[in-house]
Amino acid sequence: MKAKIIGTGSYVPPKIITNDDLSKIVDTSDEWIRSRTGIEERRVSDPQTATSDLAYFAAKRALLSSKTDPMSIDLILVATCSPDTLFPSVSCIIQDRLGAQNAAAMDLSAACSGFNFALATAASFIESGNYKNILVVGADTLTKYLDWTDRNTCILFGDGAGAVMLKATDEDCGVLSSYLKAKGEDGKFLVMPGGGSRDPEMKNKRFIRMEGKEVFKFAVKALEESVLEVLKLSGMDISDIDFVIPHQANIRIIDHVIKKFNLPKDKVYVNLQKYGNTSAASIPMALDEAVAGNKIKKGDIVVLSGFGAGLTYAANLVKWG
Ligand code: UT7
């Protein structure tokens, strides 16, 4: 049995914040942000909107596109590091809203790598024969945890959600291999200190703190390694790739990989100019856009690869069905 992606969906909140808007609140400029990151604008949730709201709409669209009856879902897995509450989980909240009463539900925390970790977990559940229909969502609202006076971080992130519906198949397609890694010793480079059990009273405000240069160096290596290793696990190499969906964090990180592997630019999907870094949502949002734009066809070998806090990095190799 393999896990086939039978539908995708995504959702972003309507409010747009441009680079020029940011230059009015911190010492930055459109020119700096575009040239150093590739980002032009990002979406920001209003105070009433939580991660589960975005996750719900993305999930609903994935169910529609795959013509899935919510009652047939066996498991809902939501990758997020910005849940509405520590519990109940986002997956339980959307289980209720979707009317998926037969589904088990759990969240998975691997920050920006979360969707790849969740997809690999879901694929294993399907390959083991335990479950047939799994909804995987990546959703985050990191703009709620930004220090809007810190130009090192507030220019990078945006809110969003993406989802895929997986189905057990005996066809020759689906998730072929997964490569998951963690580097806990470097966790200090990207941290949200406040609000956890080490600081329940939030003496540290719940803001993202990042050493950008360190994360950048890690990211370039992580992307490179995860692409090569996930291909190797399926006995393939760079020449077998039809399409790459990298984590949408910084165009300079993506360009490095394009150059390193000599990939044609049109084989690598980029939409970070519109959304910034949407964390666990970035890869499923990009996948949904690529599918809607007919960029991926049946039989294509697609690599989904990303990195994030933890530090973590991961890739999945998918044969499109
Ligand atoms: O999902 C994982 C999440 N994290 C990432 O992917 C982050 C990876 N890192 C990066 O994307 C980059 O390191 C950044 C975009 C965060 C920063 O780019 P950089 O090329 O590494 O810049 P830098 O930190 O070396 O800063 C260069 C200069 C500094 O000024 P001086 O010391 O040369 O005078 C910074 O103070 O740019 C300054 N700077 C800014 N200037 C205008 C830093 N941020 C800004 C800003 N606007 N927003």
UniProtKB/TrEMBL annotation:
UniProt note: domains: The last Arg residue of the ACP-binding site is essential for the weak association between ACP/AcpP and FabH.
Cited NCBIfam families: fabH, PRK09352.1
Subcellular location: Cytoplasm
Complex formation: Homodimer.
Name the record gives this protein: Beta-ketoacyl-[acyl-carrier-protein] synthase III
UniProtKB keywords: Acyltransferase, Cytoplasm, Fatty acid biosynthesis, Fatty acid metabolism, Lipid biosynthesis, Lipid metabolism, Multifunctional enzyme, Transferase
Naturally occurring in which organism (per UniProt): candidate division WOR-1 bacterium RIFOXYB2_FULL_37_13
Classification via InterPro entries: ACP_syn_III_C, ACP_syn_III_N, FabH, Thiolase-like
Entry annotated with the keyword Lipid metabolism: yes
Region (ACP-binding): 248-252
Molecular functions (GO terms): 3-oxoacyl-[acyl-carrier-protein] synthase activity; beta-ketoacyl-acyl-carrier-protein synthase III activity
Known pathway: Lipid metabolism; fatty acid biosynthesis
Record-linked HAMAP family: FabH
Family assignment from sequence similarity: Belongs to the thiolase-like superfamily. FabH family.
Highest rank taxon of the organism: Bacteria
Role noted for this protein: Catalyzes the condensation reaction of fatty acid synthesis by the addition to an acyl acceptor of two carbons from malonyl-ACP. Catalyzes the first condensation reaction which initiates fatty acid synthesis and may therefore play a role in governing the total rate of fatty acid production. Possesses both acetoacetyl-ACP synthase and acetyl transacylase activities. Its substrate specificity determines the biosynthesis of branched-chain and/or straight-chain of fatty acids.
Cellular-component GO terms for this entry: cytoplasm
Domain Beta-ketoacyl-[acyl-carrier-protein] synthase III C-terminal as annotated: residue spans: 232-320
One GO BP: fatty acid biosynthetic process
Domain Beta-ketoacyl-[acyl-carrier-protein] synthase III N-terminal: 106-184
Swiss-Prot/TrEMBL catalytic activity: (2S)-2-methylbutanoyl-CoA + malonyl-[ACP] + H(+) = (4S)-4-methyl-3-oxohexanoyl-[ACP] + CO2 + CoA; 2-methylpropanoyl-CoA + malonyl-[ACP] + H(+) = 4-methyl-3-oxopentanoyl-[ACP] + CO2 + CoA; 3-methylbutanoyl-CoA + malonyl-[ACP] + H(+) = 5-methyl-3-oxohexanoyl-[ACP] + CO2 + CoA; malonyl-[ACP] + acetyl-CoA + H(+) = 3-oxobutanoyl-[ACP] + CO2 + CoA
